[in-house]
Amino acid sequence: MFGETDKEELYRRLAQARRMFTPTLDPTTRERIQKLVSDLEQHIAKVEARDTDAPPE
Question: What's the whole-model pTM score?
Fold first, then answer.
């Protein structure tokens, strides 16, 4: 979904999605934003894991 995007851009998108989330949103929009946040967090975790200094096995 996000491709090879740099970490700064992913963190920016995550912060933006979190700011959009408010309790007053309709249920469908709230669910979509929660999914976006979850997807971004998972993608960031994958990028962070790839960027470690651990030697390849």
Answer: 0.69
Q: How far apart are the C-alpha atoms of 12 and 8, rounded to whole Å?
A: 6
Q: Which two tokens stand for residue 17?
A: 């999605």
Phi–psi pair at 56, nearest 5 degrees: -65, 145
Return the structure tokens found at 44. 């960031």
Q: Which of these, 57, 53, 1, lies nearest to 37 by C-alpha position?
A: 1
Distance of CA 34 to the CA centre of its chain: 10
Which residue ranges make up each domain of the chain?
Answer: 7-49
pLDDT on residue 3: 59
- Close Cβ partners of 15 (under 8 Å, ≥ 6 residues apart): none
**pLDDT value for 21:** 78
